[in-house]
Amino acid sequence: MQTPAVQPQYNSAVTKSNALIEANYKLSTIEQKIILYIISQIRKDDADFKMYKLPIQEFSELLGYRGSPKYTELREITKNLMRKVLEIREGQKLKQLSWVSYVEYDEHSGYVSLAFDPRLKPYLLQLKREFTTYRLKNVMELKSSYSIRMYELLKRWQYMWEVVIRLDDLRMMVGAGDKYSEYHNFKKRVLNPAKKEISEKTDIMFTYEEIREKRKVAAIRFQIREKVVEPVVVALEEKKEAQADDRYLQFLAVMQAYDRYITEQQFTKIAVLAQKAFGGNWMDELIQTARRIMQRNDIREPIAFLIYFLNEKVQRIQAGIDPNEVTIHSPGGARVIRREIVPDWLRGYEEQLAAQSAKSKEVDEDIEQMRRELEERLKKYKD
Question: Is Transport one of the keywords UniProt gives this record (predicted)?
Answer without folding.
Answer: no
